[in-house]
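Supplementary Text 2. Reproducibility record for the structural model of the 254-residue chain.

All settings were left at their defaults, and a single model was retained for analysis rather than an ensemble. We include the record here because the model underlies the residue-level annotations in Supplementary Table 4.
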Amino acid sequence: MKKTVLILAVLLCSMAFSASVLAENDGVAATSSGKTVKIAGGTPGGADWWYPSPFTFYPRGPGYSRMSLLFDTLTWKDANGVIPALADGWEVSDDGREWTFYLDRNARWHDGELFTADDVKFTFEYLEDHESEFTWFDATSYIDNVEVIDDYTVVMDLNAPMASFLVDIAGNVPILPEHIWEGVSDPRTFKDAEAVIGTGPLKLVEYDSTTSSYQYEANYNYYDGKLLIDEFISMDVSNTAAALQTGEVDEVSF
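Retained model, structure tokens:
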């Protein structure tokens, strides 16, 4: 099961519902489905989950999920374990300290720029330079060096073996576009439209902190499966039961 399905499942109560509306990986090019999915996804009291960039999202599950619809990681997880995301495959050295990742050649950033190994190297170096601003978890202290072998191969040298590396680091760090973030000196205050350009299955159309609403549209150039929705909206509602009954929303997130 692909990330496009799994991420929305975190936002929704039903895995079956998310699988039926978000994505399938059948090799067919993405086309318009005309489908909009709305969820009641605000917090008690109307507080929101913050701006969904990698440096400003609310550092808990719902905040991370809203960011992860926009940004991909090298690996992801399903019920059976670690699966490919931006990395098609990987190898680890016998001593467990050198990880080689082979990247997806079809991935592009939302603005059309190519995703390459340079973006991966840049991401980890940028996080190290801005570790005080990236407060969600320690993403870089285990890594000694990141080396670009070619456009779609990158090697990470660890300072010690880490059994959970594929999940805790490769599967959690959102990869940043170098061509955007290389000019950003303060990532915590960077909230331009470019701050949410990722490689993920959806693009952010509008965010309103006053109403705790997030509006996304499909990324039809997504490399990891055909999208089955055109629009996804997370909003705050005063009465979730009534909103479900009237059809104002399709689901309620936890």
